[in-house]
Amino acid sequence: MKSCAVVILNYNGEEMLQKFLPSVIEYSQSDVWVIDNSSTDQSTTLLSREFPQVNLIPLKANFGYAGGYNWGLEELKGKYKYYILLNSDVEVTPEWDLDLVASADLKSGYAAIQPKILSFQNPDYFDYAGAGGGFIDALAYPYCRGRIWEHIEKDEGQYDDFIDVDWASGACMLVNAKIFHQMNGFDAHFFAHMEEIDLCWRMRNKGWKIGYDGKTKVYHVGGATLARTNPKKLFLNIRNSLSMIFKNEGWLNFGLIFLTKFCLEMMAAISFFLKGEKANAQAIWKGYKEFLIHRNISEDQIVKENKGKSVPGKGPVKFLILNTGILKKKTFQSL
């Protein structure tokens, strides 16, 4: 069994592969694989022509982030100790993969570890997706060291440590291959967005730890697939967040969280509507509707066995909206 594979999921990402694969090839000591979600552009032609050293796993349809990785990684099952799941729009740094593997080997009990994720466009600042390590509050709203909602911190070495977190970013995360397959991978019904938070939550419920290694850094473009303000992303985040909470929390906690989130997010929908942003308002309504219709579809047997045994988050706050909306706190350190 080999130590590690760097695995990039691609869908019509010819431009991103052309731009960022060279750094991955130059700075990685691990095998590099691309899972292609049945792209309709020239991605696979580009790979065979310009990057023959990269291994390709072609899929027959676009299964999204979650399903794409699940199906693709089945081809690598039993061949590697670790996978590093890497977005196609990430620039890596020298020995980045060796450093993540070393952290995983030295520290026992970790199912996943993410590096420091900085902005490719503004390298002195953290990136939105994962930043300095991810947490969730009592309502399962995600936030990061270095990024609270839309407020991004400058990287001044304040998060150059190794700590336990609630979730590792899907933009770049090392995951123990055996544990990934034991957990049945990502929830493929999510398609995209929130699936890494759900996976990490399920791992923590099983007793595994999730880590952040601030000594290793990568640079992420972000929004290369869907902009953060896109109504489709809002819909997926709303629906998938509810599904994630439903699967991982006990019935009483889920009911309380659902009612609280419903009130808060319906107010947001009304605000969007009054501002003329009808697509965003409809995305919120659609997210709740789709969850209520299909809420049982992703509650697999493993999750049912652990329902009500949820491990609480490790973050500093219970209610992020209270701290940011009323107390006007904008940075992780102020929390």
TrEMBL record:
Glycosyltransferase 2-like domain segment(s): 6-180
Xref: Pfam families: Glycos_transf_2
UniProt keyword Nucleotidyltransferase, yes or no: no
Cited InterPro entries: Glyco_trans_2-like, Nucleotide-diphossugar_trans
Gene Ontology molecular function, alphabetical: glycosyltransferase activity
Keyword set, alphabetical order: Glycosyltransferase, Transferase
PANTHER family: GALACTOFURANOSYLTRANSFERASE GLFT2, RHAMNOSYLTRANSFERASE WBBL
Family: Belongs to the glycosyltransferase 2 family.
Protein name as annotated: Glycosyltransferase 2-like domain-containing protein
Species of origin: Algoriphagus halophilus
